[in-house]
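Render this sequence as a predicted structure.
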Amino acid sequence: MDGNFLDRVKALPRLGLGISTEYDARRDGLDPNAFRRDRPDLLQFLEIGADLERGLDDDAREWIASGAPTTYHFLDVNLEEGDDIEEAWIARMREVLAEVRPAWVCGDAGLWYVGARDRGHGTLMPPIFSPESAAEMARGVRRLREGLDHEVLPENPPAHVYLGEMHLLDYFGRVLEDADTGMLLDVAHLAVYQRVMGHGALDGLADFPLERVVEVHVAGGSTFEHGGRVFVDDDHGVEVLRETWEIFELVLERASNLKAVVLECEHNAREAVLPLFERVAADLARRESRA
């Protein structure tokens, strides 16, 4: 893709408020197509979380057939491992993207699996926050963007333990600059990181290039105790941490190229998530009124 990111981002569509889904998520959650038909004021696009092994489920295919906007969230490539981005995988992805027609591609920038690409090896671990890792991830983002001919937005992944000498935001700031890319900033994941590492909710954001944030994820999290320590489970529930809202409000104010917000709540009843959608929709409307 030609041009620098701050020029390319002008061509990306403004999607508004969306919901994420993964394969067969409606088995214990909500129907995104029915939700959109009933409340188009609250739900404008679908982020399809998928891997090539399982493909697209019926809900995703119905949404695509309706012509409503989508993004594609990969669940099966390790951006930090250059050798993992194989030509065969890229070729199959191009076929899927031709069907999905997403506005962009995104995904957690960590290790989706260990060893050979196989769902039996599935995990999700964050990268090691070091300059060497950041350089490798930037190369992975560039290669994937060129191979897929779509913008590729790395996402900060969730974890309970983080390794490396860099702050998460310094790490991703370097990735964004070296890869000349935008980012999917998961403010719920960032809130957990700040808590785990003993930082304040907004630490590091003053110097972070928020103009490169194209998409934001908001999700609930629940605390639990193990071995005398308190952890946060990124459970996509309806109870959102105070720090998550604090980060979200700052990002809404300063992310000049923000195009989309996703509420990750696919495993809940619609009635339970409506207050979250109404709150975020009101926040986005206030943002638009100030523009």
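Summary. The mean pLDDT is 92. The chain has nine helices and twelve strands.
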